[in-house]
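Thread title: Can someone regenerate the structure for this chain?

I was given the following input by a collaborator and told the matching structure tokens would be attached. They weren't. Posting the sequence so someone can regenerate them.
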Amino acid sequence: MFIQCSGRLYRTRALYAAGQLVGFSICYLVADEVTLMNIAVHPKHQGNGYGRVLFQDIIDFISDQHGQRQRTLFLEVRESNHAAIALYQRFGLSDIGRRPGYYPPIPPATANETAVVMRLGQGHA
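Best answer:
Regenerated them for you:
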């Protein structure tokens, strides 16, 4: 995925703490739309607010210097990822649909998992 998500249409950010890589984000840019392809924080660093820092960077990227959003942000998240969904909702994203069977199972699950599709539109922050 990392090799495919490189080039001028992609925005990749890494987050370091005390010289260690703790997380990253990858966004895909097309016209006035941004799709969050991946955002991750290393498991031993989760719960320290790094996900919020990475996501705020994306919100800043889609907004102008006055906080006015200039682009629409889209993302998919596993239906079982309640922490991520809560974070996205705190930033104002709305649930706009479902993609059944979108994600492969994470053991011990045996079935593909539904994706929640979310959006943050243009307008005031």
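The first helix runs from residue 50 to 61.
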